[in-house]
Amino acid sequence: MKLHGEEGSSVPDLASVLAGCPGPGGKGVYKCHITYDTRGRVRIPSFEPYRPRMVRRLRCVEVPRLDYSCKWEDRTALQSAGEGMGADEEVLILQHGMVTDTRYSNVVFGDGASWVTPETFLLPGTKRAFLLAEGAIHERRVRAEDIGKFRFCSLINAMLDPGDVVVRTEDILL
């Protein structure tokens, strides 16, 4: 809202939005999708069952002009970065040789003792920010050629913790 909201508009209060909607219809883990406009007006939230993707391989793709600094409803440019990927593959987006994110997550790299997240990113995710503030991960410059210095890469987002979805670095295609 600070970047694109109309003057005097504020971010909707999440607790109020969720209190005023019926919620998901079944048991299990659900992802809630809330869309709002530049005035802070909310559409009805939608819920869908959440099932983490089983990613076994990452494919590095250079996308120098991709801007995803805000979580846009139109994800066409972001999704097109991974066209032709297999069901168990995901794109690891590079910008000018620097590792950023996947299409749906930030990333952390591990060596078995610590986690590192790239200082370059498309979207400063909430889980990434939380883990940095807690000291659970550390920010560092990660170039494509640095990937091999780590043992594995883990995808993180609001629904995924480090270690939930892990890809060995030998399964990252440069």
Shape designation: globular
Terminal CA distance reads 36 Å
Structural class: mainly beta
Using the CA coordinates, give the radius of gyration: 17 Å
Percent strand equals 25-35%
Q: Round the mean pLDDT to the nearest integer and report it.
A: 88
How would a crystallographer describe the biggest sheet?
5 strands, mixed
What are the low-pLDDT stretches, counting only 5+ consecutive residues below 50? none
Describe the structure.
With 174 residues, this protein is mainly beta. Helix content is 11%, strand content 30%. It has three helices and eleven strands. The protein has helices at residues 14-19, 76-80, 126-134; strands at 30-33, 46-49, 57-62, 89-95, 98-99, 106-110, 115-118, 138-140, 152-157, 160-168, 172-173. A five-stranded mixed β-sheet has the order 8-7-6-9-10, covered by helices on one side. Strands 5-4-3-11 form a four-stranded mixed β-sheet, with no helix packed on it. Strands 1-2 form a two-stranded antiparallel sheet. The radius of gyration is 17 Å and the shape is globular. It starts with 13 loop residues before the first helix and ends with a strand.
